[in-house]
Records
---
Amino acid sequence: MMNVQQQNVSSFIKVLLNRWQLIVSITLLFTIGAGLISFFVLSPVYEATSKVLVSEGNTQAANSDPATSFYQMEKSFKLFDTFIVVAESPQVLEKVIDNLSLRDSYGQLSERVTINQVRESLAIEIKVRDESSRQAVQIVNETAAVLNNEISKLYGENQLSVLDQGNNTEVVSQVMPKPFLNMVVAFLVGLVLSMAAAFVLELIKRPIERTLPKTEDTAVLNSRMLTKVDKL
């Protein structure tokens, strides 16, 4: 059993060594191709982030009465879904488009805007993706400002406050493409495909090699028969 396994491993390694040039060529082709496409073909996409804090309401009442404080906090959590719906609505995003004179439609902008509750907090996180880092910052800041105004109109008080704005390098990052990640993935894909190609070529080669000795034997046999005939 061990001999069979050793033979299989030996055959596997032998195929890889015999086809190493093919494997290296295909792997490099995939890796370099992915790098060139990532760096020179794909347009970069930037993401700007802004966080908005949901107010607990009357802070004096909250501080003086623990029951009121708990009620206000529970109320704030229940308002999250409402605020997120408002933030994603045409009521907010269409005003952002008008204020910034964007060419996007509501549908196009909504696909690039992501709004979620920050985990275990009273904050809402607004993320905007754009091919221009400057425009991503403008959109995320304007969305936060318009949302704040709309919530104030709906509830008659300032329920939101902007914690940070997308006006610094810490909240703006390039999210796409990721050249090095793309190159690693392309390297692995190229390696797997090149190894598969090596084994396919080996499987095609073996039947051909098996027929060659038979052809040679036939030629030798024919030559011997001719020699005997000549002697006769």
---
Amino acid sequence: MEHDGPASRGKPGNPGNPEDPGAAELAAAYAARAGIHRRHDGGIDVLRSAGGIRGVLESILPGLVFLVVFTFGRDLVLSAVLSLVVAAVFVVVRLVGRTSPTQAFAGV
């Protein structure tokens, strides 16, 4: 019968063992998978991590178009259609450029 207490859990790896990644290596690997980009000084490059200017525009413009058109026109259908048209333009640009359209869908 196994005991599920702290003594039965695996012991931490040897920090000198090259097969055991350290915290810095694990953090770097996680950041790379998450799409987080770092500057040369080690800080996080927020703009690049968000997809650059294009990524920010793809995320913000469809919602902004909806907000502005609905605020001034009070027409829900027109606001939604124009917002979707803006998002569709970004998706088409992504597809023509043979890049992933995932970021363009984020604004919808």
